[in-house]
Amino acid sequence: MRKVPFISSLRIIGRGSLNWIARRPLVVSFEVTDSCTCYCKHCDHGGPRDDSHLMPPTAYRRYVEELRPCVVQVSGGEPLLRKDVAEIVRNIKYDGRLPYTILVSNWSQMTEELYLELHEAGVDQFSVSLDFPDERHDVFRGYPGLYSHLSELIPRCARYGYDDIVLNSCISSENVGEINAMADKARQWGVNMCYSAYSPRRTGCKDYFLNAPEQIETLNRELDRVEARRDPSNWIVNSPTTLEATREYFAKGGRPGCKAGLRFLVVTARGELQPCSMQFQRYPLDQRQQMIEEFTANNTCDQCYVSIRSYLDKPFPRLLWENVSGFLSFQPERPRT
């Protein structure tokens, strides 16, 4: 994964340290639409929804100014259904520097031209969902032709050399044996690889959780090989501690200690604060402290280990060290245009 230039790293470290002390979120996920182009088996955000309530692009600047996150995810639903998504990004990156901005998308609506527009607008990382390294991806997502579209478009965008595309695979009972095959596909396409973990809380379906000993054995075997493939390019984005925690999450059937609402939170398409995408207590922007007191302080949920949590679910010194050692670069910042 592309290293973060030194000056940008200092900005992220500085804001992260202040946010940790001030009990502000490190990561905010903006769900800019509830609608999606896919009907994924592991997700509750399938198909079209009522989008008459969407916040305009200019509203996002107020949330960034108030919450001051180090990292922002622009997600949905499918964020590329917003024709004004580039303008949303520009309002999030209004000062041209922070927050580090990640677009989380299935890329069904992505084009080469839109990729370049979003890069120029300020997207630092494109997180592209991939459930299988072949056409089974289409079946799992309920979108015929999606894998073919990705296999043609992703390598073409990767050739621009920005090193900002990350395949994200949600590990489930369906694809646990494909963990390294998807890493192979990332290598073939010239992009990076990240893993998250299926949560039954999102849909209520436990069939896709790793429930059998042989599935845990497969997980451990596949992740052992992932660890053996690490190299200085950092193309496996997950830290070793995150992958170890993923093993424990599946082996134990959960992971306590979640800090949703404090270290990370969601802003819904209506502009309400929500502790995470699977906890539906909602608060206005000026009641974030109330959310921490009512939800975070009493949260006993252990039913997920998704990416937004896994990056933050560790002591601050460990979090700081992993990000500095893994992503800091002494190369100068490159202009967007």
Structural account:
The chain is α/β, with parallel strands linked by helices and 337 residues long. The protein has one domain (4-329): Aldolase class I (TIM Barrel), CATH 3.20.20.70. Helices cover 37% and strands 13% of the residues. The chain is built from twelve helices and ten strands. It has helices spanning 6-22, 59-67, 85-92, 112-121, 136-141, 146-158, 179-189, 213-228, 240-252, 288-294, 307-310, 316-327, and strands spanning 4-5, 27-31, 71-75, 100-105, 125-129, 165-171, 192-197, 264-267, 273-274, 328-329. An eight-stranded mixed β-sheet has the order 7-6-5-4-3-2-8-9. Strand 8 (264-267) and strand 9 form a beta hairpin. The longest helix has 17 residues, at 6-22. It is globular, with a radius of gyration of 19 Å. The chain starts with a strand and ends in an 8-residue tail after the last strand.
